[in-house]
What we know:
Low-confidence stretches: none
Radius of gyration: 18 Å
Helix content: 10-25%
Number of helices: 5
Distance between the termini: 29 Å
Number of strands: 14
Amino acid sequence: MTTDIHSYEPRLGHGLPHDPFNAIVGPRPIGWISTQNAAGARNLAPYSFFNAFNYVPPIVGFASIGAKDTLRNIEATGEFVWNLATRELAEAMNQSCAAVPPEVNEFELAGLTPLPSEKVRPPRVAESPVTFECRSTQILQLQGIDGAKVPTWLVLGEVVAVHIAKTLLKDGVYDTAGAGHILRAGGPADYFTVGPEQLFKMRRPR
């Protein structure tokens, strides 16, 4: 048991050189989200608060801290695409998070190829080996225990189409370790990769 503990109340400050919250809740999957506005202008941006929330129907979600272009586009159209960020695409993913005006196309900025989706209007990232086409189901503004709204919105969407590169299907099973997922960690620049060396198996007790 660890007895030498640093404890704090977040509302009073953490008392450390860098807030540890993001590092502790991590590494996290990256929500690399492509959208377009009602006029068809494209947007692509990564979100570090992303995950899956349900099996049937499959529902994924991400949190937008601040009312950004991605959020406004989904509010206007009800559609988005999640694109898997891999080690090979890390630099392009990072480029797509640049703070640029709404009229800037992040696909072009990051040197990526927009690929038409089948069920939704926003394009997929052609270079990404896995993509989810999604339709928004809920957009929730978060609030604290005092009931006060915070400027963060949780966007949830049902996955209506899945696209997987066949090279990642080993005997029909998705090869997570071989896909090269990258994950967001704490600090201003920390990421992790997933590979075979991190894989271990553990069955649920019966």
